[in-house]
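Why predict the complex rather than its parts? Because the way molecules touch one another can change local conformation, and only a joint prediction can capture that. The input here totals 313 residues.
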Amino acid sequence: MRALAAWLQATHASHTIQTVSWVIPLLQSIHILMIGVVFVSSLMICLRVLGGVRTDEPFAAVSFWIKMALVAGGVAGTAAYGRSLARLALPGAGFSVPARAGAVLIIFLWLAVIFLGRAIAYDREVWGSLSLHA
Amino acid sequence: MDIAPFVQAIQASPPAEWMRTSVKAMPIVESVHVLAAATVFGSVFVVDLRLLGLIDTARPVTRIAREMLRLTWVAFGVAVIAGALMFSANAHTYVVNTAFRLKMAALLLAGVNMVVFHALTYRTVDSWDRSNPVPLPARIAGLTSILLWVCVICCARWIGFTKGYDFSIPQNTHIDFQF
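Output of the joint prediction:
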């Protein structure tokens, strides 16, 4: 953990952040703005359950929850995959079969996210008796 | 108009004294202020994005506005109270601080934008409640609102870096952090 912190602090980006005076206030401002977006977004979901807002809309369909799980997995997976690519590259011979399989998997994962997003509006039609809609 | 005596009175008030002397007051009040400000921005952002036709375009503008603006006003009230406490502690340094003045100007303009929108454009909302795109003045009001609130938050964060805090690490100090 200490080694990671030391490495992080020695990176070029970290050095820039430490020495250029306006970078920290700018990053902190963006940080606060994004907290506002994320906080209010999750608040909307929670308040929908508690009955305060968005009662004119059907609640989270099956597709919605699968989509959210895939988005989380997709972000983590894409990031991890991108980082590990440097190791996976075969010298002069393109990429190995597992690396190619990973690429296809990630493409299909994001396609599934996009389709599930649209399927939220058709929960009963898509999921039949599994649908969360009454 | 000379505001010096007024500023002096604020800085000498009991809440200001409490903010300066309590170890716990400043971090707690600052946290509450940031949380409330983030909530104001986030909830206003939702309404602005609807006006710009980027989210929730199938839902009536009035409904989104009613739901979100309740949250906005509660959070704004909390932010004002927490902000006033922070201001009182060092009123003299705030009134001459450029970032603080710019923040108040942006806040004022955001208020003007809101009043103009509600007094003129929003009066006819019944005719475009479910529309997308909404009339141009409403879209302009939404974009202006986003820009001004981003200015408010950025200026606000800049205050902390320009108003002259002492960032040096205190020596031989005993701080009781038992909240």
